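In this supplementary section we document a worked example of the pipeline. Step one takes a protein sequence of length 230 as its only input; no multiple sequence alignment statistics are reported here. Step two produces a three-dimensional model, which step three serialises into structure tokens for compact storage. The input and output of this example are shown verbatim.
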Amino acid sequence: MAKSPTVKPHFHGHRERLRKRFDEVGTQGLADYELLELILFRAIPRRDVKGLAKNLLEVFDDFAGVLGASPERLEEISGISQSVAREIKIIQASGLYMMRQSLQNQPIISSWSALNDYCRALLSHETREQFRVIFLDKKNRLIADEQQNQGTIDHTSVYPREVMRRALELGSSAVVLVHNHPSGDPTPSVDDINMTKQVVAAGKGLSIRVHDHIIVGKTMTTSFKALQLI
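The serialised model returned by step three reads:
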């Protein structure tokens, strides 16, 4: 009896076609769910992932939202294991690393738009308030970007003396303060304004300048410098 031909999964040809299309046109020719499929292919080799990609976009709003979601939130989605979540977070980390490296090659003051994009990519999808400090050298080039504290969904404690102590350790001449508002509204609160004044005051006696305080919301950012609050 002749053996029946092996039937390949219906998604087998789809994967090759999608990879070929990416080779030919790059991301410009792909929908968000298709780009997510390409990421999922690596972690889920033997399953149709189109539905999963679309489900992720529905839950997390957009492509950036999927990459920015925590591993715990990702693993709540049916079909996303720890290894799949890790693959997604590796892609996010790689993108952030590239953005951070580009900031190191030029003074922050002359690349404010790139800094703003980096801050948004880093914090706009965080579900807890996080306070970070970007430390700069005498030529306003990036020395380090560090998380100083993480709090609840609407509050984090900031200690001006700790910010300045770390700046001195790194030999930093200036800093940019950054934190997010998980509510999505980047409008500075009274506490934000008072805390910023305290950090500015702490830095004056040490000749460490606070260039700006950037608040990251869901879709936009607010600059204390632009609001003339610094």
